[in-house]
Each structure stands twice: as structure tokens, then as C-alpha cells.
UniProtKB/TrEMBL annotation:
The lineage of its organism: Bacteria, Pseudomonadati, Pseudomonadota, Betaproteobacteria, Candidatus Accumulibacter. InterPro entries: Tn903_transposase, Tnp_DDE_dom, Transposase_Tn903. Pfam families: DDE_Tnp_1_5. Residues 32-142 form the Transposase DDE domain. This is IS5 family transposase. It comes from Candidatus Accumulibacter phosphatis.
Length: 322
């Protein structure tokens, strides 16, 4: 296979320089991420710790889905095993003077494969520009040191996390978890179905350049900004993708990306980086629990986002090195 190399023009490319305009508020939000009262709200826990009475006959449960999600959130946030999570939750109950039972580690593990995680989402204020991408989280296999020294082994296995992100508010508005043999375009329609409200534009990379993805975007009356793959040919019948090909031919790839805001799909790539700050591996052994674990991390990331995000503005360019 021939390698494609960007030709060297002999000119060093300058980089854009940015400045955060709300540093004091963003600095405080970073501090608040470690505030236990945000993740362990006494009043909310007291009112929602026990589930509602069962309908018909049956023994009432001790722990609601809110209770289990709270435990799993503490576990994921501080990257604790189940037993340490149980101990931390008991100490928080004592410090808060709440006379509530705490699920043991086996109960947490069992319920983790059953609950439906509630991911916080704020209402949209207008049409949404959705950016989509996927990444992999390791479930078992060799560590990075062994891979660098001896290569990737056969037992290295991943789960794919597919995310839809609001380009403006930068929160997660859709998530799918699949095995590694699912393609990005195969789960795109289900991912877009999770986006509530009006969609104005969908930006993604070339992996989503399929007729199925374009059809799903058209069903939402949205504009698709997906770069066609190398060697792409027109689909005919005045398909919107053919217009993209014409624009790229007239303006060049960089010009089309700037005019269409396609480059904003980097927001999804940044979201993948943020997600992996909570760990680049999934620690659960069954697929159902792995899905729950990924959803809990998405809930944590959205809470981080709502606490405060940096607002950056361009202030010039950094001169290239001589």
C-alpha cells in the first residue's frame, strides 16, 4: 500500500493562539468537580434512596435506581473497586448523619447490569449542530508498556463508545456502546434518534459517508457536513453529497471545512479525550455492566460540563520556530 505524505512546501505553519476569557469561573468549576456535596446531595438522597412501593404483591426493595447510580458515580469518579465504594458510601452516610442502608458490593455489581442510567441533559435553546465520533475503551489485554515493547497481542479487546455531542454547549446528547465489530455508520441512526429537538447540522468524519447516514440526517431536515471518502464519485439525482463534492472541488478541502463548520467535529474528538480522563479501560466483566459503566461516565462528563467550561477566543498566531 502506497503511503500518502503531505508535500513539504518549506514553509512552517503558524498556530492559532487562544485566551480563556472566563478563567475565574472556570477555575472554580474545576475545584467544584471534587466537591462531594455535588455528587452526594443529602436532601435528594434522603428523598430518593428507597424505590417506590411495588405494584401488586412482592417485597419492597431497599435501593432505588437513583441510589445505585449514586454509588456507581462515586465508584467511577474516584476510580474505586466495589468494596472500597461500599466503604466510602458508608462513611458518607455517617458524616451526613443519614440513617440509610448502603448496598454491599455484590448488590452494586448485580444491579449495575440492570439499571437505566439517567444522563443529565439541559433543554436545547434552538436547533442543534450535532458532532459525532467514536472511540475505543479497553476491557482486557496487555498494558501500553508491553504493547510498545512487544506489539499488540491477540487478547487485546475493546468496546466502542459512539457519542453525539452538541457543538455549542459541548455536552453529550447521544451515546451507544457496541462491540468492536460494529462500524460507525451502522449505529449512526440510533445515535441520532437520541437527539431531542430540532437538528440543524450533523458533522462527522469520512467513516459516516454512507447513504444510510445521509438518509438519517435528511429525515431530521438537517444539513450533512461529512467529507466524502477518497475517490468519491457523485451519487446522482441531485443528492446533497454531490453538492459537497462540488464545493470541495471549487474551494478545496480546507475552504469547504471552514465555510461549512465541518472542522467543528473536533469537539467530538475533544469529548473522547475528556471521557478517557476517567479511565481508558472499562473494568466490568459483562457487556451489560460495561454499557452501564460507560453511561455513568457520560453522566459525570455532562455534570462537569454544566459546572462550567472555558470560553476561549483567538488572540493571534504563534510564530513558527525558525
Amino acid at each position: 500500500m502506497a503511503a500518502r505524505v503531505r508535500p513539504d512546501t518549506g514553509e512552517a505553519r503558524s498556530k492559532q493562539r487562544y485566551r480563556v476569557t472566563n478563567w475565574s469561573e472556570y477555575d472554580r468549576s474545576l475545584v467544584n468537580r471534587g466537591d462531594l456535596t455535588i455528587w452526594f446531595d443529602d436532601a435528594s438522597i434522603k428523598d430518593n434512596w428507597a424505590p417506590p412501593p411495588p405494584v401488586g404483591r412482592g417485597k419492597p426493595g431497599l435501593y432505588s435506581e437513583t441510589a445505585i447510580q449514586t454509588c456507581l458515580t462515586i465508584k467511577a469518579l474516584f476510580q474505586l473497586p466495589y468494596r472500597a465504594t461500599e466503604g466510602l458510601m458508608k462513611s458518607l452516610m455517617r458524616l451526613s448523619q443519614l440513617d440509610l442502608p448502603v448496598p454491599d458490593h455484590t448488590h452494586m455489581s448485580r444491579r449495575a447490569g440492570e439499571i437505566s442510567v439517567k444522563i443529565p441533559r439541559r433543554p436545547r435553546k434552538g436547533p442543534t449542530h450535532v458532532v459525532v465520533d467514536s472511540t475505543g475503551l479497553k476491557i482486557f489485554g496487555e498494558g501500553e508498556w508491553k504493547v510498545r515493547q512487544h506489539g499488540v497481542g491477540k487478547r487485546r479487546t475493546w468496546r466502542k463508545i459512539h457519542l453525539a455531542v452538541d457543538e455549542t454547549t459541548k455536552d453529550i446528547i447521544g451515546i451507544e456502546v457496541t462491540t468492536a465489530d460494529w462500524g460507525d455508520s451502522e449505529v449512526f441512526s440510533g445515535l441520532l434518534d437520541q437527539v431531542e429537538g430540532e437538528v440543524s447540522q450533523v458533522s462527522a468524519d469520512g467513516a459516516y459517508d454512507t447513504k444510510g447516514c445521509h438518509a438519517a440526517i435528511a429525515d431530521r431536515d438537517a444539513r450533512a457536513t461529512i467529507p466524502p471518502r477518497d475517490g468519491a464519485v457523485p451519487w446522482g439525482d441531485d443528492h446533497p453529497r454531490d453538492g459537497i463534492l462540488k464545493e470541495i472541488a471549487a474551494k478545496g478541502s480546507a475552504g469547504w471545512k471552514n465555510d461549512s463548520d465541518s472542522h467543528r467535529r473536533s469537539i467530538a474528538e475533544n469529548m473522547m479525550y475528556r471521557l478517557k480522563q476517567l479511565g481508558d479501560s472499562l473494568y466490568s466483566r459483562t457487556f451489560e455492566r460495561q454499557v452501564t459503566e460507560a453511561h455513568v461516565r457520560a453522566a459525570i462528563i455532562n455534570t462537569f460540563t454544566y459546572l462550567g467550561m472555558p470560553q476561549s477566543v483567538g488572540v493571534g498566531q504563534i510564530a513558527p520556530a525558525a
